[in-house]
Amino acid sequence: MTLRQLEYFLAVVGERSFRGAALKVKVAQPSLSQQIRALEAELGVQLIERLPGRLRLTGAGEAVLPHARATVAYAERARRAARSAGALEADELEIATVRSLAVGMLPESIRRWRQSHRGTLRLYEYAHRQELAEAVRAGIGDLGVGPRPLSWDGPLEPLGWQGSVLVVSRTDPLARSSGPVRLDSLADRQWVLFEPHHGLLDLVLTACAHAGFEPRGAVETSQVEAAARLAAAGLGPALVPENAVPIGLDAAVLQVDPPVGYELAAYAPAPFSPLVAEYLTVLRAQPRPGRPPGALVVR
What is the reported pTM? Predict the structure, then answer.
C-alpha cells in the first residue's frame, strides 16, 4: 500500500468518478484505475463498487476512508513541517470548523493572523459538530474550532459562548418587540430551517422542543447567511448564530427567551504546535461573551 494509492482513492471518493479523479490528480485514467485495483488486491477487498453511471463505496471502502484521510493528512503535515524547517515554505495553518463560524467568528481572527504571517491559512468546513470532531480526530487540519465536543482526549481550550438570535422581516409584527421573544409564541408559524444533517438544525429543533413544539418549515437551506436573508425577506423566522448575521441586513434581529446557544472550543488530537498557539493567541484576543444565566445549552 502506498501513499499515492490512498491519495488516488480519496480523489475518486471526492470526485465520485474515475475520470474526475484522474483530472484532479493529473494522471491518465487507466493508471489511476490500475492503482485502485492494486490497492484493493493488497487489502483483499473491493473498496469501490462500479455501478451504471455512478460509484458507491462498499462497506470496506467506508471503513478504510477515515484512515486513508488521516494518513494522507498526516503525511502532508509532515511534508509541510520539513519544508518549513528548511525555509522552503512559509508557515501554513489548517483549521477545521463549522460553516457558521467560517462566516461569523473566524474571519476577523484570520485577518489579524495574516498581518504577521505570510503563509496560507486553509479552512475546512463541516456542516455538523460531530463531523468536525471526527475530522479533527482523523488528522484533518492542525486545529478544530467549533462547538465544544461532548468528549475529547486531546488538548482543548474553551472559547466562550455562541449565542443565537431570531431574524424576522422588518414588516413582521415581532419586529416591534421591545424585549426578548419567547419561542413558544412562534409555534403556529412556518420557519426558515436548515437542511437535514446540518448542525444548526439540531439547535433550532432543540430550542423549539424546549418551548413545546416542532417547527414547520417554509424553506430549507444549508447556508447560515441565506437563512438570515430568507427570514429578512419574510419567509419566516430564522434562529441563527448571532455573529453570523450579515452586516447591514435589512431585518429585525431579536434576542430570545431563554437565551439559546452552545459553548465553543478549540481542540486538536495532539499538543498544540507553536503555530497553532500563535493563532490561538490572536483568537483569544477577540472578546467573547460568557454564557448568560438561564441559557439553554445545546450539546
Answer: 0.72
